[in-house]
Amino acid sequence: MASMKLYPLQFEPILKERIWGGTKLKTYLNKPITSDITGESWEISTVENDVSIVANGIFKGKSLNELINEFPEAVLGTKVYAQFGKQFPLLFKYLDAREDLSIQLHPNDELAKKRHNSFGKTEMWYVMQADTDARLIVGFKEKSSPEEYIQNLNNKTLLSILDTKKVNPGDVFMLNTGTIHALGAGIVIAEIQQTSDITYRVYDFDRVDANGNKRELHIDLALEALNYEKIEAQRLYSKNQNTSNEVINCKYFTTNFIPLDGNTKIHKNKKSFTVYMCVDGDFQLTGDGESYAYKKGDTVLIPAALTDFQLSGKASILEIYIS
């Protein structure tokens, strides 16, 4: 059977310059950046014009879309293929914020479909590294309203009604659609999100690019998409060694945290692919008589056809799949 040729897949990072980016993707995560304002490394993507290319093994040079076309159920899983067809439903990134990101939000599935023919953008952040006193913005301090929000936006006092949180490595934030948010300066995160590149930017600190231009804002689009309720975005989770500790379980993805110190056996049911993001340390994955090594900053896609393997080493790992 052709799908038996499938193996753990790594991809060439898709590197993105951003006005707020820096150099930590290279110094901290060993990404091959060539610019001092690299803000994002897209690890696994099928966003149009940004489709991941396999970096290892016999499928090296093939795109993820080509593999999904050839082995849809074996790559995606029976349940994921039944739900999404040959679309890969998630996008995986590392971000380095040298400066504050713009204050922004993302539309839900219904609005994104109507306006952009796209998925919405539910996402989560795992903080990998944070400078002293680094903070992020997530949600309103108290329940707000379109009128209060617009008044503060016009008066350039929007920050006064937004909730800021000091962050530490290991912190997790769940950003449901409509949540106003901004990653603060001095933070490196792993980001897991729906396959979507729809962002409504509402305030950008009046920054200009190298040519003196301000970035586009999406004030009107954001009004209907915003969630004005007070929310609690931070998620607390267990850290039991050598096992999968549930961090996020939503309809778009499940994320577990594995504090590996030794080894653990993994069994999957062919319903979904699994992705491992190594957020610290290094580990080996052994299965079908083959062994693969991963280090901090590596992301690997385990096709759904691979059901039994072992992880060993000393590492902190995010385990993501669709349940």
From TrEMBL:
Binding-site positions, Zn(2+): H106, E123, H181
Domain of life according to the entry: Bacteria
Residue ranges annotated for the Phosphomannose isomerase type I catalytic domain, each copy included: 11-118
Cofactor: Zn(2+)
Annotated catalytic residues: R201
GO process annotations (BP): carbohydrate metabolic process
Entry keywords, A to Z: Isomerase, Metal-binding, Zinc
Keyword hit for Isomerase: yes
InterPro entries for the chain: Carb_Metab_Reg_Kinase/Isom, Man6P_isomerase_Firm_short, MPI_cupin_dom, PMI_typeI_cat, RmlC-like_jellyroll, RmlC_Cupin_sf
Pfam family, one: MPI_cupin_dom
Record domain Mannose-6-phosphate isomerase cupin: where: 247-321
CC cofactor note: Binds 1 zinc ion per subunit.
Name used for this protein in its record: Phosphohexomutase
Naturally occurring in which organism (per UniProt): Flavobacterium sangjuense
High-level lineage: Bacteria, Pseudomonadati, Bacteroidota, Flavobacteriia, Flavobacteriales
